[in-house]
């Protein structure tokens, strides 16, 4: 529930209105700059905190002495929509992956994704497994052989229990990267990106109609709409909005709001109660509007350094917050008032995420990147 889902912004200068073929349209005189989009970092932090609130307040984890609605009579309902942070992550991921891939070969794209995904993830898997083995918080045991498979990030397709429940989203992200690598392999252009969006959307609809498990795994008919819309938003940002891109985004929104009925039913199963559906649609609308504001350049003034730092924390926070947080709650809920415990726990998790980013993710990513680039050079040389 990385992309803080695992997305990293590597932004070119923002181009200007197309003056020629789709592949060559740019905005060289727009005054754009290289760097991160702070507004997207802020949205990533917001999405991560939504997921944290859902797991700590609304999810039926059993770590509180009483059912969550009784423990949090006011906060339960807002927190019960925190699972939607995952959909916001996917939407941002489509935007950022398209941006990160531009001008890169498929090998460079692969190295950038591996170095982004795995260092913090390896640490998260080992740390969560060790902590929950020593101080179990829920009635589940982690077998060493399952932990070992989790290190590959392939536990979902292999039917192995995940070390942490939130890791299911990483398999979704990985499949998106593999699909997007198809156009990175050919060379990413405006024309190919638009074609990719259209073809994936129609293929996803076909997959939903035929209910074929293999097609579902490849085309992700329930989640593809967020990635496709994110790609279209990036094309608006990089070039300019046009009717075709708005039709892609609008179609994705219309399908996604309907598909969320099933996702909400699953979330309600975890919570153990029903909640109104209209806030789900309202939040999805706000997500699309927020990313549209970024795509249209309406958020340029939000160039705040702390947002960039916050964006870097979201992936480690996402990886470690659930089981470790439940453990802390189970062992301290009777000693600390709940409305003191929750904000303190979130602050501690944010600090832990910064430590993971600073002392694990950054140095290990750099070393892994050097090794992979050297290996790629040797492979090309035969």
UniProtKB/TrEMBL annotation:
<dbReference type="Pfam" id="PF01757">
    <property type="entry name" value="Acyl_transf_3"/>
</dbReference>
<feature type="transmembrane region" description="Helical">
    <location>
        <begin position="84"/>
        <end position="102"/>
    </location>
</feature>
<feature type="transmembrane region" description="Helical">
    <location>
        <begin position="243"/>
        <end position="260"/>
    </location>
</feature>
<protein>
    <submittedName>
        <fullName>Acyltransferase</fullName>
    </submittedName>
</protein>
<keyword id="KW-0812">Transmembrane</keyword>
<feature type="transmembrane region" description="Helical">
    <location>
        <begin position="280"/>
        <end position="297"/>
    </location>
</feature>
<feature type="transmembrane region" description="Helical">
    <location>
        <begin position="340"/>
        <end position="360"/>
    </location>
</feature>
<feature type="transmembrane region" description="Helical">
    <location>
        <begin position="114"/>
        <end position="135"/>
    </location>
</feature>
<keyword id="KW-0472">Membrane</keyword>
<keyword id="KW-0808">Transferase</keyword>
<feature type="transmembrane region" description="Helical">
    <location>
        <begin position="166"/>
        <end position="185"/>
    </location>
</feature>
<feature type="region of interest" description="Disordered">
    <location>
        <begin position="1"/>
        <end position="33"/>
    </location>
</feature>
<feature type="transmembrane region" description="Helical">
    <location>
        <begin position="218"/>
        <end position="236"/>
    </location>
</feature>
<keyword id="KW-1133">Transmembrane helix</keyword>
<keyword id="KW-0012">Acyltransferase</keyword>
<dbReference type="InterPro" id="IPR002656">
    <property type="entry name" value="Acyl_transf_3_dom"/>
</dbReference>
<feature type="transmembrane region" description="Helical">
    <location>
        <begin position="192"/>
        <end position="212"/>
    </location>
</feature>
<feature type="transmembrane region" description="Helical">
    <location>
        <begin position="43"/>
        <end position="64"/>
    </location>
</feature>
<feature type="domain" description="Acyltransferase 3">
    <location>
        <begin position="38"/>
        <end position="356"/>
    </location>
</feature>
<dbReference type="GO" id="GO:0016746">
    <property type="term" value="F:acyltransferase activity"/>
</dbReference>
<feature type="transmembrane region" description="Helical">
    <location>
        <begin position="304"/>
        <end position="320"/>
    </location>
</feature>
<dbReference type="InterPro" id="IPR050879">
    <property type="entry name" value="Acyltransferase_3"/>
</dbReference>
């Amino acid at each position: 529930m990385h992309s803080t889902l695992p997305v990293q912004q590597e932004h070119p200068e923002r181009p200007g209105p197309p003056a020629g073929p789709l592949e060559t349209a740019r905005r060289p005189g727009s005054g754009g700059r290289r760097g991160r989009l702070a507004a997207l970092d802020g949205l990533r932090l917001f999405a991560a905190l939504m997921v944290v609130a859902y797991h700590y307040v609304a999810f039926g984890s059993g770590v509180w002495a009483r059912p969550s609605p009784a423990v949090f009579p006011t906060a339960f309902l807002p927190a019960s929509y925190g699972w939607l942070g995952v959909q916001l992550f996917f939407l941002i991921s489509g935007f950022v992956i398209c941006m990160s891939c531009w001008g890169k070969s498929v090998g460079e794209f692969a190295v950038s994704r591996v170095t982004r995904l795995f260092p913090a993830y390896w640490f998260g898997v080992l740390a969560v497994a060790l902590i929950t083995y020593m101080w179990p918080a829920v009635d589940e045991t982690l077998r060493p052989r399952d932990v070992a498979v989790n290190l590959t990030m392939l536990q979902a397709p292999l039917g192995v229990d995940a070390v942490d429940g939130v890791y299911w989203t990483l398999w979704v992200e990985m499949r998106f990267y593999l699909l997007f690598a198809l156009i990175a392999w050919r060379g990413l252009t405006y024309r190919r990106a638009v074609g990719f969006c259209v073809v994936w959307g129609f293929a996803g609809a076909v997959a939903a109609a035929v209910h074929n498990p293999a097609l579902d795994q490849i085309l992700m008919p329930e989640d593809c709409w967020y990635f496709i819309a994110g790609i279209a938003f990036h094309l608006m940002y990089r070039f300019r909005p046009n009717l075709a891109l708005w039709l892609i985004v609008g179609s994705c929104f219309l399908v996604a709001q309907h598909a969320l009925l099933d996702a909400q039913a699953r979330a309600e199963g975890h919570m153990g109660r029903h909640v109104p559906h209209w806030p789900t649609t309202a939040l999805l609308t706000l997500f699309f509007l927020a990313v549209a504001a970024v795509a249209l350049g309406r958020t340029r003034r939000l160039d705040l350094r702390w947002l960039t730092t916050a964006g870097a924390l979201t992936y480690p926070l996402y990886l470690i917050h659930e089981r470790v947080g439940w453990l802390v709650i189970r062992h301290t809920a009777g000693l600390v008032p709940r409305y003191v415990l929750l904000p303190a726990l979130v602050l501690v998790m944010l600090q832990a995420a910064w430590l993971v980013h600073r002392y694990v993710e950054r140095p290990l990513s750099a070393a892994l990147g050097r090794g992979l680039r050297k290996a790629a050079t040797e492979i090309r040389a035969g």
